[in-house]
Amino acid sequence: MADIVCKPLSPELLPDYLAFFDDRAFTDNPRWAGCYCYFPLHDPRTTEWSKRGRDENRAAVSGCIRGGTARGVLAYDGGQVIGWCNAGPWSQYPMLADVPESDTGRLGMIFCFVVAPAWRGRGVARALLGAACDELRRLGMAAVQAKPLKSAADAAAAHLGPLELYLSAGFTVVRDGDDDDVFVRKALV
């Protein structure tokens, strides 16, 4: 594993975040380049995702980062961002408003992993997962949940994190989802 340093997202790191998504995150999957990892933050009750564009998502996520409503962890090698994990309190994600959970006040959620193609398979996602759990614990979360796929055909489909990654980090399957996904959970306290 390389000398990976993980840092919680902050307004000061916005230029690093944008440079990663502008230039490195999706060089092998340009179809997703316009997301800027804003999808988990949008409100599907008021916004039609399919009508949003790259510039609109870039501006929206920038506003969320500046306002402190976007959370997650950036992975660095040297001064360059090589990966990202979108992770925050359950309440940060409007798209979860209709998902029944009893303890959402102290529940964290991990949504996405984005690792630059040249860095995949080198421990970046594992480092991000550990740092995300540490940051959620620091924020007062008692547990964290994620919804990975049981199987993923390629790196783009594995953006929710491989199930094996979660299981090897102490997460347990708590229920099957609607399709090929499962809910996994880990206590943080």
Order of helices and strands: EHHEEEHEHEE
Please work out how many helical segments DSSP would assign: 4
CATH topology: Aminopeptidase
Unreliable spans are none
CATH class: Alpha Beta
Structural class: alpha+beta
Tell me the fraction of residues in β-strands, as a range. 15-25%
What would the average pLDDT be, to the nearest integer? 92
Question: CATH homologous superfamily name?
Answer: Gcn5-related N-acetyltransferase (GNAT)
Oligomerization state:
single chain
Strand order of the largest sheet: 1-2-3-4-5-7-6
Give the N-to-C terminal Cα separation: 28 Å
Largest sheet: 7 strands, mixed
Helix content: 10-25%
The domain count comes to 1
Principal-axes shape call: globular
- Rounded to the nearest angstrom, the radius of gyration is 15 Å
Protein traits:
189 residues, Aminopeptidase, seven-stranded mixed sheet, globular
